[in-house]
Amino acid sequence: MNAMQVKKKFNAPVEQVFELLSKHATYNVAFAPIQVVRVKDSADPERPDGIGSVRRLGLGPIKPLQEEITLLIPNQRIEYKIIKNPLVKHHLGVIEFESVDENKTLVTYTIELQARAPFVSKLILAQLKSAIKLGFSKLAKTV
Description:
There is one protein chain. By secondary structure, the protein is an alpha+beta fold. The protein has one domain: START domain (Alpha-D-Glucose-1,6-Bisphosphate, Chain A, domain 4), CATH 3.30.530.20. It is 24% helix and 46% strand. It has a 7-stranded antiparallel sheet with strand order 1-7-6-5-4-3-2. It is globular, with a radius of gyration of 15 Å.
């Protein structure tokens, strides 16, 4: 299985960083010009971006990627998977939150990916790693 990992320290408490990264709209800032739109709310009215929610990613009206939140443990972990994509066999995104001290949080973002076409996974993961590093740097300045 091909995977990549990005670690980033945020100068904010774990609760604040988790709240930021648990919102689908945050990724519009992190990964601009890619747009992220929630297309299905979770069953939890208090957390519409929670377990079972689905977001679409893309540009303008073309948003071919769909991701579903499969696990959400407040201030600890978020997991999601790509759904309904014929090009991807397996995709698991895991975002882990660790309190370093009361005003510092270490975020570890891991993505496992297996594309259906050979050799494509490593290329996609390299692009994702670059985008996530840049996106996290942008977000770290906002907290």
